[in-house]
Amino acid sequence: MLPVIAIGTVILLFVFIKFLRIHDETTRPKLHHSGSGFIKLLQKVISKCPSLTEIYQPPSLWGKCGHIQTAIYGKIGRIDCPQPNGKRHSITLATKETITFDVFQPVNGHHSSGECTILVCPGICNSSEKKYVRTFIHYAVNMGFRVAVLNHIGALPNVRLTSPKIFTYGETKYFDCMVQCVTSRYPTSRYVIVGFSMGANIVVRYLAEDRSRQLPIVCAVSWCQGYDGLRSTHALSSGFGRFYNYMVTMNFKKILKPHWNELFKVPTNNNDTKLSYDEKKVESATTLAEIEDGLLRHFDGFKSHVDYKALCGCAHMIDNIHIPILLLNSEDDPLIISDVHDIPISYSRKSEKGLFAAMQHGGHLGFYKGRWYKPDATTLLESITMEYIEAVLGHI
């Protein structure tokens, strides 16, 4: 019996070590660019971004496993998370939705002696109150940046819906509303856009839909987005993907719960379209597709969730972006698998000002730094973003 237990223990230990990928060698980010018109600026920018040229060292015990990085991001967020103080603004649109965004003023002056503002669009179901967003805000305001963060409609449980609608994967009008409001309040500021996950898809769509929107923006940064609404979610239907699909769906339903009456119970006065949401399908949903089919697709009149996802990505319009933009994804992201990396690679090789960085490790919005098992308070996400922004601001 003892030999069997010993063999079983060894096998389990071997599987555990393989899962943690402890013995994997760490490498530098893989950088993709056109090597043409942007090369001189690119060389200057990269020289000011050590995090893009150095080997990323995640916590050695667990940091090479994308599943654990993603799980810690999802459940813990950030270590020793700060509490930056901002001012909340709200605007009610003609279509009756009320958007809110928070503005955080710089703690220190920017070294350039000018105003610099970062416009942030967070990930799915997220707001300025999420730990990873708060950590980024704290990092940025202490470097002299003003930060404005869009709170996705429905993401704040204490902000009541004024219309039977919440955010969608690709809708840009709410972000556009925040941008217009902030730029009118601070007309002398320089502007940068940062998007995380779903928010990164939204900001790329925002910039690509109308080239005039790119005029006041110095540069943009995109983290962990899927680019194609269908291809990026295909992996969520098998293997580990099913687990992540279920967890994201449960989180989605959690943010819907405080707004259930406004979405499903209160009669709509919308004379244009009768919104026929499927309350039972959403209530019993265990996959994102069921929420998309029961709720999200109806906002814009799509016939199916497949049609909805086919048009909510940015892959078909990203080539319209002509400002400096840094696109980042990790190769071990269990939510956005590397199969879609051909999209940013293709764009960055054609664009004179596009740069795609494929990180070996980091999971989905994890990117923890540290030694052995304890992560640092800040992550590679904050470091790379601010290094890139500062580098571009210094050379534009």
Structure in words:
The protein has 396 residues and is α/β, with parallel strands linked by helices. The protein has one domain (26-393): 3-Layer(aba) Sandwich (Rossmann fold). Helices cover 36% and strands 16% of the residues. It is built from 14 helices and 11 strands. It has helices at 2-20, 39-47, 50-53, 66-75, 131-141, 173-185, 198-209, 240-256, 260-265, 279-283, 288-294, 305-312, 342-350, 380-393; strands at 30-32, 87-92, 98-104, 116-121, 146-151, 190-196, 217-223, 325-330, 354-359, 368-371, 374-379. It has a 9-stranded mixed beta sheet, sandwiched between helices. Strands 10-11 form a two-stranded antiparallel ribbon. Mean pLDDT is 88; it is low at 9-17.
Quick gist of this model?
This protein is an alpha/beta fold and 396 residues long. It is built from 14 helices and eleven strands.
Q: Helical amount among residues, as a percent range?
A: 25-40%
Radius of gyration from CA coordinates: 21 Å
Let me know the CATH homologous superfamily: Alpha/Beta hydrolase fold, catalytic domain
Query: What overall geometry do the principal axes of the alpha carbons give?
Result: globular
- The helix tally amounts to 14
CATH topology: Rossmann fold
Family: Belongs to the AB hydrolase superfamily. AB hydrolase 4 family.
Protein name: Monoacylglycerol lipase ABHD2-like
Pfam family, one: Abhydrolase_1
GO molecular function: acetylesterase activity; monoacylglycerol lipase activity
